[in-house]
Amino acid sequence: MTPLTPFVTIIIPAWNEELRISDTLRALQHCIPAHEGISRHEIIVVDDGSGDQTYQEAWPWADRIIRHTKRRGKGAALSTGIAEAKGEFLIFLDADLQDTARYAPLLLNPLLNQDADMVIAKLPAPWKPAGFGFVKRLASKGIYRLSGYKPSAPLSGQRAIRASLLDQVGKLARGFGFEVGLTIDVARLGCRIAEIDVPFRHRESGQDWQGLYHRGYQLASVGSTLFRKWREY
């Protein structure tokens, strides 16, 4: 089967990422044009109401920057980017991957070879103790019970998907439940999901109060998304 050579859109939601986003975008601008399977590409950054210099740091490296006047959540930022994307394939990446963003083309290979409709990155184990795994277990069990698909990386935000597939899925979640809701919708459609090991690294939240707050917010978003998907089922 002849591999595809599509137009690819990379969408990066960002909130207060002035210290990391320029390194992430610089790595992408070097690796994406070098990938022989990509004919054209664009990088869209959605600044989700940042209160720092995220916009200024991203400006030299992004093809487009869209600004929310106030913080609306990760899922809303991704939805904004999706609405503006021109690519046939979309890649979703976190803003804090820095130099490891150079591995982004690995997410495309199963799509280019027509072996999958959505690809999810499985990241290496964290360097330091993180949370207690409750949010991941909730997400994994919820996805399985609502779609029949058993995910290895249910919370991974590093993904690639066929743009046409998003026209078929349900309403996209606005917060940190975005990935969980998307996985359920794609699995319910009977589409092919591939999970592959990619050595991305991003900022890790520990077991301090800041980390606990982040996971609490994530837990609420995932729980809300699972409840909404259960009602749709």
Automatic annotation (TrEMBL):
Keywords, in A-Z order: Glycosyltransferase, Magnesium, Transferase
InterPro entries, A to Z: Glyco_trans_2-like, Glycosyltransferase_2, Nucleotide-diphossugar_trans
Superkingdom assignment: Bacteria
Residue span, Glycosyltransferase 2-like domain: 9-125
Pfam family membership, one: Glycos_transf_2
UniProt EC number: 2.4.1.266
Keyword flag Ligase: no
Cofactor(s), by name: Mg(2+)
Reactions performed catalytically: (2R)-3-phosphoglycerate + UDP-alpha-D-glucose = (2R)-2-O-(alpha-D-glucopyranosyl)-3-phospho-glycerate + UDP + H(+); an NDP-alpha-D-glucose + (2R)-3-phosphoglycerate = (2R)-2-O-(alpha-D-glucopyranosyl)-3-phospho-glycerate + a ribonucleoside 5'-diphosphate + H(+)
Annotated family: Belongs to the glycosyltransferase 2 family.
Protein name: Glucosyl-3-phosphoglycerate synthase
Organism: Paenibacillus eucommiae
